[in-house]
Amino acid sequence: MKLNLKNKIKQILPSIKQGLKDIKTVIEEGNIRMFVKQGIAILILLILSHYISGALESRDANVKGKIEALQAQQSNEKEYMASKSKLLSLEPRFPDISEKNNWLLKEVDTILREFTFNPAPKVGIQTEDDSNNAYVVVSVPVELTTTYAGFGDLLASIEGRDEFLKVSEFALTKKSVIGKDEALGENTVKLRIDAVLPTEKVAKALFKDASVTGGKK
Are 139 and 192 in contact (CB under 8 A)? Predict the structure, then answer.
């Protein structure tokens, strides 16, 4: 539209120049009335030109604003869908708060059964930290005997699972028993395994398709 306006101005520019020459001639000839008529016509022409130009600029600004609003909306939609997808993929990996009394103990037992420890590991009493309103941290202490390599495998098994488990602390003490070869290279390991349980799962309340996609890992 701006291009069309410029073309129209170029078309009428010679007429304006000729009109100015005519005004000069009128002044020289002393015919003031014709001068007034010509002046009024040019003034009207300039006013119309200014009005059309302003209207076009206003409309362009309005269109630009709508485009920017649509771009912002698209950006917000992408962020929303990314957040939704992340929540639907992560939330099922956390246990329900109703299972906090035995879920972690079962997980620890399952993990320990993957290895052969001698003597059998000692699993302590589960403790809970509910100081945060959004989640509860449950912890289980474990004591066992294994090699450095065995402890590395155990650590990888705990923290590499789909369920979010974490070894929050551990201590290794090298066993040294004179005359007993079976103690060579072995360590007494004390570790604490944590899990986080959200006080509320929100995906089903937020998304209609949570029941369909929420169970996928």
Answer: yes
Neighbours of 54 (CB within 10 A): 10
* Nearest in space to 204 (alpha carbons), one of 194, 196, 214: 214
pLDDT tens across 109-164, in order? 999 999 999 899 999 999 999 898 888 999 999 999 999 999 999 999 999 988 88
pTM check: above 0.85: no
Q: Using CA atoms, how far apart are residues 129 and 17, in angstroms rounded to an integer? A: 87
Q: Which of 214, 144, 197 minimizes the C-alpha distance to 172? A: 144
User: Alpha-carbon dihedral of residues 30, 36, 38, 39, nearest 10 degrees?
Assistant: 120
Q: Is domain 97-198 in CATH 3.40.50.10420, yes or no?
A: no
DSSP for 22-85, please give it.
Answer: HHHHHHHHT-HHHHHHHHHHHHHHHHHHHHHHHHHHHHHHHHHHHHHHHHHHHHHHHHHHHHHH
Q: Which phi and psi angles does 139 have, rounded to 5°?
A: -135, 145
* Residue 188 predicted with pLDDT over 60: yes
Side chain identity, residue 54: G
